Every structure is written in structure tokens, then in C-alpha cells.
Amino acid sequence: MLSWMAGILRDLDISDYTNIAPEYDSLQDFTTSLHEAPARGIRGILDLVLNHTSDQHPWFVESGSSRDNPKRDWYIWRDGQDDGPPNNWPRSSVGRRPGSATC
């Protein structure tokens, strides 16, 4: 059997790459399951989306803290247009939570 575990790091709104979402129990429970799975004929695939982070993630916060921050180029920043957003994209909740960012 093959198990695909998508969103284990809190969907695409990743604020912590070192822990799992609470609805998947604890990191220790996950680690135990991961080690016991092969003996039960289970293989797993983790879907890790590295190009999405939450606006609460330390990388994003630091990157946006100033225009001369060394991590500024970790994200694409644009000035807004006419006191609005930097583009004409409508807000969408499909596949993203409000406040998520793509790097």
C-alpha cells in the first residue's frame, strides 16, 4: 500500500518546516509511524512544498523588514499601485490561505 500525505506541514501556508500540523498528531507519533510502516507493507510519500511560506514564517518577516535586508531577494517584492496591491490579481482562496506567500 502507498500512502500520500499532502499538507502535513500545514497545507501551503507553511510557517514551520520543522514540525507537523496538529491534526496529524505529534511529530513523535509521525516518526514512530514512519519507522513502523515498512514492516506493515506501507510506503509513504510526503508532499513538501518548499516554495510556499506563511507571512508569519521568520524568513518572510525578515525578508520584508527592510529594503536592504540580506534576505530581501528570497521573495519578490513590488511597490503597490495607487495605494493598492502591486498587481491586478483578484484575491483567491483556491489552494492558498490568506496571508500566504510564494517565494
What does the model show?
The protein has one domain (about 1-85, about 95-100). Helices cover about 15% and strands about 15% of the residues. The chain is built from 2 helices and 4 strands, in the order βαββαβ. The strands form 2 sheets. Strands 1-2 form a two-stranded parallel sheet. Strands 3-4 form a two-stranded antiparallel sheet. The radius of gyration is 18 Å and the shape is elongated. The model is unreliable at about 95-103 (pLDDT under 50).
Could you list some keywords that capture this structure?
alpha+beta; two-stranded antiparallel ribbon; 4 strands; two-stranded parallel ribbon; disordered C terminus; 103 residues; 2 helices; elongated
Brief synopsis:
The chain has 103 residues and is of the alpha+beta class. Helices cover 16% and strands 16% of the residues.
